[in-house]
Amino acid sequence: MVVNWGIIGTGNIANAFASALKHAKEAKLVAVGSRSKQSAVKFGTTYGIPEEHCHPTYDDLFSDPKVHAVYICTPHPYHCELALMGAKAGKHLLVEKPMAMNEKEAVQIINAAKDNNVFLMEGYMYRCHPQTKKLCEIISQGLIGDVKLIRANFSYNGTSYGPESRVWNNELGGGALLDIGGYPLSLARLVAGAARGLPFSNADSLQATGKLSATNVDEWTIASLSFSNNEIGAQLFTGIFADSDCTAEVIGSEGTVRLSSPWRPDVPEMGKPTIVLTKSGEEPTTIEDYATLGTSIFVYEAEEVSNAILAGQKECRFMTWEDSIGQVKAMDEWRRQIGLKYNAD
Ligand SMILES: NC(=O)C1=CN([C@@H]2O[C@H](COP(=O)(O)OP(=O)(O)OC[C@H]3O[C@@H](n4cnc5c(N)ncnc54)[C@H](OP(=O)(O)O)[C@@H]3O)[C@@H](O)[C@H]2O)C=CC1
Ligand SMILES: O=C1OC[C@@H](O)[C@H](O)[C@H]1O
């Protein structure tokens, strides 16, 4: 049995996911939906999709009986409406991050998945990567003692993208936090949870500051969070104005663990992925055998989701619905504090 996938949108990440599907077990790309027949056919030609399954509208993709699961990878503000359409059509859903613009939308999407008995995951793909599993093992096995502080960053230089590009455009959900800031936030929530033997933990408090661009999206923003009755702190940074460290570090009572490339360990341009474990008073140990280097991170995600669907599960064990709700609530609060608003609010 394989899961037949359809893709909605033909942009940057649609191509990465389509390429990964070629290598994923239990998964096959069978259809694509675009806003135009021309781009659907262009995409379909690249990935071997027959022309009758290259759809000129998203609606047509959702009506395609050959499709079991849909990967929604349009700009963020369209995720909610499309996820609701997909659930209603009985399709299993992998919705790119952020799944929703705000908590209200996230609740609507999850309710639609429940009502229509379909699988749904918010596409934080790094959660499915063996490197992330290894990090959680290090934490939960107590190899660095009690977790005290989590530091994580994700930034890139998007200054050469035009003001109309989705990352600088408020109407398209632009800005650092929604595009990439969700990764450090979700890692902090993951690690704070692992420290207590839980799949995730929500912060008790969050204090943020940031700078909005002339186009009214966040150029950079930083936040301090506290978890577990102030036993664990987190410092998170994200920005789209400059290339900077994209790393994560967890400091414990008996050592530290540092990931050199936590988000895209499969992309050499983001640096050689290592986990460096330093126990107090000992030499650092570098762990590199946690992953098949070079395998696209989307292969892990596509296989994880396909297997869950084939097993009749509705949620992904690495990113549950409750986790997505905790994530969007924290994002909403973070945005409130820096005055970042979108049409969906
Ligand atoms: N997990 C990950 O590593 C990544 C996730 N993402 C997420 O995926 C989503 C898409 O990002 P990305 O692929 O970079 O975006 P792109 O702009 O490259 O592509 C988005 C696609 O969505 C469709 N679309 C529908 N409405 C619009 C619109 N008004 N303006 C522009 N495009 C529209 C278009 O496809 P068509 O014309 O065929 O309909 C377009 O090609 C985002 O939510 C982002 O957060 C992005 C990059 C990495
Ligand atoms: O999720 C993402 O990760 C990689 C970034 O380049 C991209 O803009 C973002 O959407």
Automatic annotation (TrEMBL):
Pfam families, alphabetized: GFO_IDH_MocA, GFO_IDH_MocA_C3
Family: Belongs to the Gfo/Idh/MocA family.
Domain GFO/IDH/MocA-like oxidoreductase, first and last residues per copy: 134-258
EC number(s) given by UniProt: 1.1.1.179
Gene3D superfamilies: Dihydrodipicolinate Reductase, domain 2 (3.30.360.10), NAD(P)-binding Rossmann-like Domain (3.40.50.720)
Xref: InterPro entries: Gfo/Idh/MocA-like_OxRdtase_N (IPR000683), Gfo/Idh/MocA_domain (IPR050984), GFO_IDH_MocA-like_dom (IPR055170), NAD(P)-bd_dom_sf (IPR036291)
Keyword annotations: Oxidoreductase
Record-annotated Gfo/Idh/MocA-like oxidoreductase N-terminal domain positions: 3-124
KW Oxidoreductase (keyword) present: yes
Catalyzed reactions per annotation: D-xylose + NADP(+) = D-xylono-1,5-lactone + NADPH + H(+)
Keyword Oxidoreductase assigned: yes
GO MF annotation: an example: nucleotide binding
Protein name: D-xylose 1-dehydrogenase (NADP(+), D-xylono-1,5-lactone-forming)
Source taxon at top rank: Eukaryota
Residue ranges of the TM segments: none
